[in-house]
Amino acid sequence: MSDEVLDELRALRAGDLPTHGGRTLAYVYDSAVPGLDALAAEAHSIASSVNGLDPTAFPSLLRLENDLVAMAARLLGGSDATVGTVTSGGTESCLLAVVAARDSRPEVERPSIVVAETVHAAFQKAAHYFGVRLVVVPVDPVTFRADPERMAAAIDADTVLVVASAPSYAHGVVDPVPEIAAAAARAGVRCHVDACIGGWVLPYFARLGEDVPPFDFSVPGVTSVSVDLHKYAYCPKGASVLLHASADLRRAQYFASADWPGYTMLNSTTQSTRSGGPLAAAWAVTRHLGDDGYLDLAGKALAATRLILKGIAGIDGVRVLGEPDSTLIAVTADRDDLDVFTVADEMKARNWYVQPQFAHGASPANLHLTVTAANAGGEARLLADFEDSVRAAIEAGPVRVADEVVAAIGALDPDSLTPQEFAGLLAAAGLGGGDSVLPERMAPVNALLAAASPRLRERLLVEFLGVLYS
């Protein structure tokens, strides 16, 4: 019976995007190191039944977490005073950075956080969850880096946190952290650096001779840094680290409740019960790879990124947005008769996944590529298929949404539409959900979604998510 269950699970997994081989250029991070998955799975199984709720009951998890935090602190310019927490992922790390900043300033009645418009959406989520006002500052329209002068000007008496990215997800560029952190420090405000993607690879790039902009605790004024272990530490999903420059800064992140008849609840994260599996898997992977292993993997990712950037520069019809500092590349159309959403469909037909990103502010619609060590050696195939996909998309022509449809979509108020009306819109966009299969070609769907305002697009996709989970 157990074999049948596992066979059914394998059959279901066969319909997913591939998580290995470097063909899925978003969501997953593949080291291509033989045996690493087996090591992580074995470590996970050893600790999966252990509960991280109480480190005094399960001291093994306390040791694992302190080891991981110490490794992250050493990598990111920490001192003997640096402390940290292992969380379930980058979003939870960012949420905790915000709640710690908010709760450290109880005298502020309407707390706000200052962010660049390119900051990860996790901070929008934090503002929504915790009742914090989000002050969004435009970035440089060419480099897509945060503007430190405008960030400084946005800080006021209600500001409890300023956030910089290293790098930003959409364009892969590192914000000017020294200037932003200095402005925060002058105002007596915390400065968080979201290095969820770059934190475990940029330091190794620096060791390889790359000119990496300063972003970590070596920068005066930086009070916290987040770095994900499931990204370029190549650990299984479910592990991230939030570092604080001192225990005093971390204290407000903790939650305690003794005012009820049960045990005194004491939590370092938003979770109470936590499986020890992801923590043990991350500990095992980082111990196994070690500093030299990560330097080698960073070198492979760097070389692959360079080759892909050079190759894209030679493809007619596309260009890279900004000048990426890390392993993230945003590719947009450089001619009017090319639809990047169609390029994504063509790449999917060639067994690649590149992530569409909608236009926002000065950033046009583009395709996001996350390059990992697994892409080393496969750059020529990727570039050849990308060039073929661009050529096919030009031949097919851009997807056109009728003017009257655009006008009708623009007139819709997402807050007044009924569930039935949303269902009709979803069906019109080809997002019926339920047992139906998504369209093979997503360019027409993305063209309709692109015509919607961000708020309407959010509501449509929330309704779609609700249909999927029904």
Between the first and last Cα atoms, what is the distance in angstroms?
A: 28 Å
Count the domains: 3
Content of β-strand? 5-15%
Would you give the CATH topology of the largest domain? Aspartate Aminotransferase, domain 2
Order of helix and strand elements from N to C terminus: HHHEHEHEHEHEHEEHEEHEEHEEHHHHH
Tally of strands: 13
CATH level-1 class of the largest domain: Alpha Beta
Largest sheet, in brief, is: 7 strands, mixed
Rg, Cα atoms, Å: 23 Å
Low-confidence stretches: none
What structural class do the secondary elements suggest? Answer: alpha/beta
Q: What is the CATH H-level superfamily of the largest domain?
A: Type I PLP-dependent aspartate aminotransferase-like (Major domain)
Q: In what order do the strands lie side by side in the largest sheet?
A: 1-7-6-5-4-2-3
Shape, per Cα inertia axes: globular
What's the tally of helices?
16
What portion of residues is helical?
Answer: 40-55%
Pfam families: Pyridoxal_deC (PF00282)
GO biological process, one term: carboxylic acid metabolic process
Cofactor: pyridoxal 5'-phosphate
Keywords: Aminotransferase, Lyase, Pyridoxal phosphate, Transferase
Would you give an account of this structure?
The structure is a single chain. The protein has 470 residues and is of the alpha/beta class. It has three domains: 40-286, Aspartate Aminotransferase, domain 2; 291-396, Alpha-Beta Complex (Aspartate Aminotransferase, domain 1); 403-468, no CATH class. The chain contains 16 helices and 13 strands. The chain has helices at 2-13, 36-47, 59-75, 90-103, 122-130, 148-154, 177-186, 202-207, 247-250, 277-313, 340-349, 379-396, 403-410, 419-428, 443-451, 454-468; strands spanning 83-87, 112-116, 133-137, 159-165, 190-194, 224-228, 240-244, 255-257, 265-267, 318-320, 328-333, 355-357, 366-370. α5 (122-130) links the parallel β2 and β3 (133-137). The radius of gyration is 23 Å and the shape is globular.
